[in-house]
Structures are given as structure tokens and as C-alpha cells.
Specification:
Number of domains: 3
Helix content: 25-40%
Largest sheet: 6 strands, mixed
Distance between the termini: 87 Å
Number of strands: 12
Strand content: 5-15%
Order of helices and strands: EEEEEHEHEEEEEEHHHHHHHH
Radius of gyration: 27 Å
CATH topology of the largest domain: Deoxyribonuclease I, Chain A
Number of helices: 10
Strand order of the largest sheet: 3-4-5-6-10-7
Shape: globular
């Protein structure tokens, strides 16, 4: 089991009685999340398997998705990347923190070289605006008789940049090949990072040529580079500017703005509709389920936080189990009711939408929740027999 540590600020010391371990409990388990603070609500969620544990962490107003992953070096790294993409899509804007043994080398996380797996993973992180929290250190995250490397990588989504601080490789002996990694998650230390909204553009080859012309002109103007400077010389000049600049945040802001301006000039933006930004509930969801969900979550937190009174803990556990069973039964009942209503709306036609749906002939999203309220009942006029 690879050792990683996540520390959230709290007033008291660790209490070994509060330790909770989350994994698949299989024989070949290579990932786990260990919670050592009873005031942190931790729930294992979808996509968890032998090499991946995904947990929802709630501490006060802070809510994050924590992913602990092991990338098998014998398998394609693209498989692990696809899994992360699915989790990011499911997170829907919630902060995501990934602690992974990626079995990939890259200078981005302070390895001596970058191999093929490292380049693939680098491209994925850049395309999804994910930030590597690893910092340069005299220690390495991995060490055995064959050598050392920094294959253990800590990754955050944009809305957690500034919250993850104090990243370091601990000097404490882990008794394993992997070192203990420590960092804290707290209040945002960077201004403007909590409200990051990505803009999507419509691109094609002609617009890319226009974009290249615009960005070259803007960078030359802002950096005071002569107009007749060629591409290779421009790359070398920019590399020197970045290397010599001490204020990295300033350079990031300047180059981000230099990219944004030609993007706005060269590409039309993709429209952001209300459907794309607001989570739409499933058609069978009801107000009663919302109430039951909140009540069940409250009962779970109350039960988990009861530590010093065994009788009270047993009572609250029974209340939570009963509430959870009621919640699950209500969900099942509402699903069946909604599906029956939908099937009955067009029962007179044997080739209705239900048949087309079963045959996979529906190419557009169906608004199932509105069929019942908008169905118009038509009365057919019988035809007169022919004379």
C-alpha cells in the first residue's frame, strides 16, 4: 500500500480511535483513503475499485472530491486518464484533489527526465486545467534498490489552487518504497481563484492561422521584441524572459491575458446556455426525496460524530439505518411510478416513443419529466363509410 497523508486543519491531535479506512477490501488493493478526524465527513462514492478510491470529503463549508489512484505501469496510462476524465465530469465543478502513483516520469513534477507516459499525462493535465502541487525537494517520493524518482504526484483542480499549501516530502520513515507526502487544505490564499469560468471557442484551421498571427503580434508588442524576430528566436527570447523572471505569478497573469485577447479576436465563443450550467434533476425526483436526502445525511453525520456514548451511538445508528432504508425505498418507488406514467402516456400507439427508445432510435434528449403535463388528448373523428 502506497503511503500518502492529507492533513486538514483541526485543533486537537490525532486520535487513533477515529481512524476510518476506505478501500475495496479486496486482496489486491493498491489504493485507499484513511480518515483520522471524526469531524470530517467522508463518503466513498462511484468509480472506486482496486486501484482507485474516490471519496467525498466535507469539512465545514469545504467540499472536495478526493481521488487516490495507482497507475499500473504494465497498463496503458490512457486507461487511467479516461477514468479521471469520467470523475471530473461527475464532480460538476466541485474541487478535485488527486493523489496518485502515476508510474510516469516528468520534469513537471521534478523528475530528472520526461518519458512517454509522462508526456501523455502532462498533455492531459494541461488540457483539463489541472495543477501539479508537487514542489522541488531534496527528497524524492520513491526510492528503492533500483534508484529514485518522483512518480507520486499531487494534482488539484483550478478551484483548489491556493487552498493546498505546505506541500512537502516528509523525513519520517514510512517503512515503504514510497515517502510520506504532507500538505494542508485550508482557506484560499490566492485571490480570484475561486470563481474561475472557462470560455470555450469554436476553432478551425483558418481561425488558428489568424490566432497565431494575433498572438505573435501581441507578445512582441508587450515584451518589446522587434517585429522582424523569427519564430525560433522568439521562442528563445520568451524562454529567457520566463527563466529570469522572479515573480512567476506575474508572468502567468501576463501570458494568460496575452492568450485571451487573440482568442477573443480570432474565435467565436460557444454559447453557454442555462441547460449547460445548471444541473437538471432526473424526472422521477420529488420534493419528498429532497427532504429525505437531507434528513438521511443529517442522521448519518449525527451517528458518525457520536463517539463517547455507546448507547446513544447505537440508537442513532438504528435511526440512520431506518432513515436510509426509507430513503432507498422511496427512490425505488418514485422511479417505478415515473416510468409507468411515461409508458402510459402513449399506450394507444404500439410504435410509440417507448418502442423507439428501446430500439435506440431516439437521437435527441427526451424531457421525460414534462410529458405528463404537456400531453394533449385528441379525439379522432370516425370516417364515414364509402357509399
Amino acid at each position: 500500500m502506497h503511503t500518502r497523508a492529507i492533513h486538514l486543519p483541526k485543533k486537537s491531535g490525532w486520535n487513533t480511535k477515529d481512524i476510518r479506512t476506505y478501500n475495496t477490501s479486496e486482496i489486491k488493493c493498491r489504493a485507499a483513503v484513511v480518515a483520522t478526524n471524526s469531524s470530517i465527513d467522508t463518503t466513498m462514492i462511484q468509480y472506486t475499485d482496486d486501484d482507485t478510491v474516490v471519496a467525498e470529503i466535507i469539512k465545514g463549508s469545504l467540499k472536495i472530491i478526493l481521488i487516490n489512484m495507482y497507475f499500473d505501469g504494465e497498463n496503458l496510462i490512457e486507461n487511467n486518464i479516461a477514468k479521471i476524465e469520467a470523475i471530473l465530469k461527475q464532480a460538476q465543478g466541485t474541487g478535485v484533489l488527486i493523489a496518485t502513483d502515476c508510474n510516469a516520469w516528468s520534469t513537471l513534477w521534478h523528475d530528472s527526465i520526461t518519458n512517454k507516459r509522462g508526456r501523455i499525462f502532462e498533455e492531459f493535465l494541461a488540457s483539463n486545467q489541472l495543477h501539479v502541487a508537487n514542489e522541488a525537494s531534496n527528497n524524492t517520493t520513491f526510492r528503492n534498490h533500483m534508484g529514485t524518482s518522483n512518480i507520486d504526484v499531487t494534482i488539484t483542480s483550478p478551484n483548489l489552487i491556493g487552498r493546498v499549501t505546505g506541500w512537502e516530502i516528509s523525513d519520517i520513515e514510512s517503512m515503504l518504497d514510497h515517502s510520506i507526502i504532507k500538505y494542508a487544505i485550508g482557506p484560499n490564499t490566492r485571490q480570484g481563484t475561486t470563481n474561475i469560468h472557462s470560455t470555450r471557442y469554436i476553432t478551425n484551421n483558418d481561425r488558428l492561422i489568424t490566432f497565431q498571427q494575433h498572438i505573435t503580434q501581441i507578445i512582441k508588442t508587450r515584451q518589446g521584441i522587434p517585429e522582424d524576430t523569427g519564430s525560433e528566436e522568439l521562442d528563445e527570447t520568451l524562454s529567457s524572459i520566463i527563466t529570469e523572471e522572479k515573480d512567476i505569478e506575474k508572468q502567468i497573469d501576463e501570458f494568460s491575458d496575452a492568450i485571451k485577447v487573440p482568442c477573443n479576436k480570432s474565435f467565436p465563443r460557444k454559447g453557454v446556455t442555462q441547460k449547460a450550467t445548471v444541473h437538471k434533476s432526473v424526472p422521477w425526483w420529488t420534493q419528498q426525496l429532497t427532504v429525505l436526502r437531507k434528513r438521511t445525511n443529517a442522521q448519518r453525520r449525527l451517528y458518525q460524530r457520536t463517539r463517547n456514548n455507546d448507547d446513544l451511538r447505537t440508537k442513532r445508528k438504528a435511526e440512520y439505518s431506518k432513515g436510509k432504508a426509507t430513503y432507498a425505498a422511496t427512490i425505488k418507488r418514485e422511479k417505478i411510478r415515473s416510468w409507468q406514467e411515461y409508458c402510459n402516456t402513449t399506450a394507444a400507439n404500439p410504435w410509440n416513443a417507448v418502442y423507439n427508445l428501446a430500439k435506440g432510435r431516439r437521437n435527441t434528449p427526451m424531457q421525460l419529466s414534462t410529458l405528463g403535463s404537456r400531453m394533449v388528448h385528441l379525439q379522432q373523428t370516425p370516417k364515414k363509410p364509402c357509399a
